[in-house]
Every structure is written in C-alpha cells, then in structure tokens.
From TrEMBL:
<feature type="domain" description="GH18">
    <location>
        <begin position="14"/>
        <end position="309"/>
    </location>
</feature>
<keyword id="KW-0326">Glycosidase</keyword>
<protein>
    <submittedName>
        <fullName>Glycoside hydrolase family 18 protein</fullName>
        <ecNumber>3.2.1.14</ecNumber>
    </submittedName>
</protein>
<keyword id="KW-0378">Hydrolase</keyword>
<comment type="similarity">
    <text>Belongs to the glycosyl hydrolase 18 family.</text>
</comment>
<dbReference type="GO" id="GO:0005975">
    <property type="term" value="P:carbohydrate metabolic process"/>
</dbReference>
<dbReference type="Pfam" id="PF00704">
    <property type="entry name" value="Glyco_hydro_18"/>
</dbReference>
<dbReference type="GO" id="GO:0008843">
    <property type="term" value="F:endochitinase activity"/>
</dbReference>
<dbReference type="InterPro" id="IPR001579">
    <property type="entry name" value="Glyco_hydro_18_chit_AS"/>
</dbReference>
<dbReference type="InterPro" id="IPR001223">
    <property type="entry name" value="Glyco_hydro18_cat"/>
</dbReference>
<dbReference type="InterPro" id="IPR017853">
    <property type="entry name" value="GH"/>
</dbReference>
<dbReference type="InterPro" id="IPR000677">
    <property type="entry name" value="Chitinase-like"/>
</dbReference>
Length: 309
C-alpha cells in the first residue's frame, strides 16, 4: 500500500516519553523518579512495562497477560501521587514483549483479541479502581490513574494481516470497554516494519503516537537520523505523531550514539518538524554510565532541547 504525505511546515514539541519498570535493576528505583520530569513539557508520559503474554507449551500466545514490573514500586497510590504533583504527567501501560522469546503468536487468531481484552482490562482496573476509592489519601483529582496503552511487540510469528487484525481489534475493544484508554501508541521496529505499518494504516484514527525505535537501527550521523525520520514520515503519513527513540540500555544502544541522536533531534527541532522524543529506559538511566554525570542525564538534556526550542 502506498501513502503520500504533505509534511506540515511547523510542528511544536509537546511530548516526552520514558519507559520504566522494564528491567529488574536497579534495586534503588523504588518509585517514579519525579526529579526527571521537566514541568515545562506539555505532556510527560511514563510508560510502564510490560504486560507480557502467557504462552502454551508449543509457544503459542494464550491471550492471558501478567505484569512484569514491580507492583509495589509503581503502585496505584504512587501513580496517583505522581499525577497530583505533576499535572503534565500521564501514565501508559505497555503491552507485548521485547525478546524473541516473547513474540506475537496467538494460539487462536479468532478469539485472541477477546481473551486479551478481558485479561488486560482486569489488570488495568486494578489501577483504575484506586481513583474511585474515596479513602485514598493521594487522590490525584483526575478521572483516571491509567491514561492509555502502548503496543510493543518486537517479534511476530504471524503475518502482517494477522498482526494488524488481532492488535487492531484489541485496541478497539479496550477503548470501547474502558473510557480511561484515551491514548494509544505503537512501537515499531525495522524488523516488524510491514506489521506495524499495516496496523497503523488500518487504525490511524485511534493511534495517537508512533514510538519508532531508532536505536534498533544503524544510524551513524545526524544527517542519517534526519533522513530516516523524514522517510518514516512519508511511510506513516504522520508529521505530528512520530517520535524518535534513544536507549540508555548498554545492551541496545550500539547502533546509534547519543551524540548522533541529540544532534539529529536538534536539526529536526530547527526545521520545526519534531513533536517529541522517547527514551528507553529509566531503569538503566538510574545508574550513571561513563557517558553520564548523574542519573537521568540524557533525559534532562533532551527535555531541555524540547523546552528551549
């Protein structure tokens, strides 16, 4: 399918997103790191990872999901307090799997989305019910504790049509059954390019953000990053929805340096074509590497870029 796109002349930066809870380390990350948040950002999203699927003995997904993050560290009460203290914060729940051992591979294509909706809604409701509890001391005075979902499978054993049909139906079922699901994002990679492309164009009306994992590709210069970004704009037809991503995970950031990412984002901001940025992930950012002076150093630099612009 071919799509052409006219890029808007002016796009203002409005959003910064951070994945969190996706790894067991560090042990000292026992709460949302509010010190990371720049209150001048219009929207700051913490994306909780991950709701991971249960697989049968033959490796097929059963449509049953479970939390992999530490529920005590990122509890409903802590989400409520965070949102009370920082009005620009929203909290999103990520769904999928980050390794080849967690592919999208439904056991029953026809019934998968219904089973998945029931399982995921139950887990989301464990957060949502807190906002309705009048005895909650950290009442955030907001309608919902959870604001949306993020589709984040990195591997698939199904074809693009099956992926798009199942995931698209799941998104629509969740939005219909839960008014709290106001925001939806997808997290494409080069590996699943046809899968996510088909998913996006079949459900463009209900997908708010495209978190594209630039760090999973070889990007050697700022010019290459800008060229890739513009290429993706033409493929997704979405100049106000596409967010480039960088990683602080030492195991996943070998194909693009942080310096290249920062310079590329500067160029996109100068041309007024970048709506925001996302970072993978707070768990690794909490532990300063040789490149960083303090925890969340890269997050601070990138948010300053957005707000200064």
């Amino acid at each position: 399918m071919s799509h052409t796109h006219q890029i808007n002349a002016v796009v203002k930066p409005i959003i910064f997103r951070e994945y969190i809870g996706v790894k067991d380390i560090p042990k000292n990350l026992k709460d949302f790191p509010a010190e990371m948040i720049n209150d001048d950002i219009e929207e700051f999203h913490f994306i909780l990872g991950t709701l991971r699927e249960v697989y049968s003995g033959d490796g097929k997904g059963k449509g049953e999901f479970y939390r992999t993050w530490n529920f005590n560290n990122f509890s409903p009460a802590k989400v409520a307090k965070l949102k009370k203290d920082h009005k620009n914060v929203k909290v999103i729940i990520s769904i999928g799997g980050f390794g080849a051992e967690n592919p999208f591979n439904p056991k029953e294509i026809e019934s998968w989305s219904t089973k998945a909706k029931q399982s995921i809604k139950k887990l989301i409701n464990e957060y949502q019910e807190y906002s309705k509890d009048s005895s909650s001391t950290d009442e955030c005075h907001c309608d919902d504790i959870i604001d949306g979902i993020d589709i984040n499978y990195e591997y698939s054993n199904c074809n693009p049509d099956e992926f798009s049909s199942c995931i698209g139906e799941l998104i629509r079922k969740l939005k219909k059954s839960s008014k709290s699901i106001k925001l939806v994002s997808i997290a494409p990679t080069e590996l699943l390019k046809p899968h996510y492309h088909k998913l996006y164009w079949a459900n463009k009306d209900i997908i708010n953000w495209v978190d594209y994992k630039f760090y999973n590709q070889t990007v050697s210069s700022a010019d290459e990053l800008v060229n890739l970004y513009n290429k993706l704009l033409n493929e997704y037809g979405t100049d106000v929805k596409l967010l480039p991503g960088v990683s602080t995970d030492p195991d996943s950031n070998t194909n693009m340096t942080r310096d290249v990412f920062i310079k590329g984002c500067k160029s996109l901001l100068e041309s007024e074509s970048l709506p925001g940025i996302f970072v993978w992930n707070a768990n690794d950012s909490a532990m300063p590497s040789n490149e960083d002076n303090t925890p969340y150093f890269l997050e601070e630099v990138l948010q300053d870029l957005l707000t200064d612009n």
